[in-house]
């Protein structure tokens, strides 16, 4: 009996320790289940999962080294040996697309972890304090929003210099304002809530109220907005690569692949069709996934 009680106590302690983890896992599983019941959102989930799978297993999935030059097979048509054909240097287009998914995922991941916290902090701070703080922060946000994202990213890259790292920084600098605007709007609806007033009466600091009480309430909407913004991130990264200001050769970035292939596209359609199709498919997938997340996390939007 003693051993039975001991095992029961250990089980209870384990459940208490792992409670938040289990709850988060169940919530995530529930969200994925609801997304998969929506056909358009399911398409987005599947494409994003394929992108992640391809990026992680690129060395296994690629049929050739993406940077090996074979001039004897330059501009070969799609075949059983080169599924998507070869480019002007004889490099396998399919393998370059597969490795290019890593670059796209790098843009998505790094930009997300930068713009999410920055936009959330700026928006909640402006909305909570109001007054001159709100005015200054939102006018700066408006300045960023007044320029098209690609044009603003071009300006930052011109100042920082061409390259993959600078392109990521430039895109991150242009992607946070919409998130800040959304977080501010959400904060204005929560600022006068009773639980916020109760926290103030208990002596909680403004920073604690923002971080502990307001940010978690804004998080679902911000996550949806970040997901929707990833389509713009992909397109802006491809635009910078196409103009030669993003990832530099010989990196197999999809926009750069289209830039080099456009000179041969009339007779060698595969050089732009497959990279362009990948950009279109991934951008569409993130838009559909964002719409599905909005329906799941905010039922009022249905």
Summarize the structure.
It is found in: Cell membrane. It is built from eleven helices and no strands. The chain is an all-alpha fold and 302 residues long.
Describe the structure.
With 302 residues, this protein is mostly helical. The protein has one domain: MetI-like fold (Orthogonal Bundle), CATH 1.10.3720.10. The chain contains eleven helices and no strands. Helix 9 runs antiparallel to helix 11 (270-297).
- List the domain count as a whole number: 1
Report the total helices.
Answer: 11
Level-2 CATH architecture = Orthogonal Bundle
Run of helices and strands: HHHHHHHHHHH
The CATH homologous superfamily is termed MetI-like
Structural class: mainly alpha
**Gross morphology:** elongated
Strand content: under 5%
Give the uncertain stretches in residue-range form.
10-20
In percent, how helical is the residue content? over 70%
Which radius of gyration do the C-alpha atoms yield? Answer: 24 Å
The overall pLDDT, averaged over residues, is 84
Number of strands: 0
CATH class: Mainly Alpha
> Main beta sheet, described?
none
The CATH topology name reads MetI-like fold
State the distance separating the first and last CA atoms.
54 Å
Give structural attributes.
MetI-like fold; 302 residues; 11 helices
Topology:
Blueprint: H1 2-37, H2 39-56, H3 58-61, H4 93-129, H5 131-145, H6 149-160, H7 164-190, H8 194-201, H9 206-242, H10 254-261, H11 270-297
């Amino acid at each position: 009996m003693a051993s039975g009680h001991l095992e029961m106590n250990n089980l209870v302690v384990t459940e208490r320790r792992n409670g938040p983890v289990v709850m988060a896992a169940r919530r995530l599983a529930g969200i994925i289940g609801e997304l998969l019941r929506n056909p358009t959102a399911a398409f987005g989930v599947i494409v994003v999962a394929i992108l992640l799978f391809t990026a992680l297993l690129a060395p296994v999935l690629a049929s050739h080294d993406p940077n090996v030059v074979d001039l004897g097979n330059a501009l070969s048509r799609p075949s059983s040996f080169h599924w998507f054909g070869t480019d002007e240097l004889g490099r396998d287009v399919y393998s370059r697309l597969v490795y290019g998914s890593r670059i796209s995922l790098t843009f998505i991941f790094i930009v997300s972890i930068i713009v999410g916290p920055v936009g959330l902090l700026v928006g909640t701070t402006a909305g909570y304090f109001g007054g001159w703080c709100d005015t200054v922060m939102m006018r700066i946000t408006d300045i960023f929003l007044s320029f098209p994202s690609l044009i603003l990213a071009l300006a930052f890259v011109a100042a920082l210099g061409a390259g993959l790292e600078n392109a990521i920084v430039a895109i991150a600098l242009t992607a946070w304002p919409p998130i800040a605007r959304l977080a501010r709007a959400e904060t204005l609806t929560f600022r006068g809530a009773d639980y916020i007033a109760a926290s103030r009466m208990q002596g909680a600091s403004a920073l604690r109220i923002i971080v502990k009480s307001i940010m978690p309430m804004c998080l679902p909407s911000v996550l949806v907005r970040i997901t929707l913004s990833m389509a713009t991130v992909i397109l802006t990264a491809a635009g910078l690569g196409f103009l030669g200001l993003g990832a530099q050769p010989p990196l197999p970035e999809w926009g750069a692949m289209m830039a080099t292939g456009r000179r041969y596209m009339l007779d060698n359609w595969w050089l732009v069709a497959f990279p362009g199709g990948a950009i279109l498919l991934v951008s569409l997938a993130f838009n559909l996934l964002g719409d599905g997340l909005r329906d799941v996390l905010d039922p009022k939007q249905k």
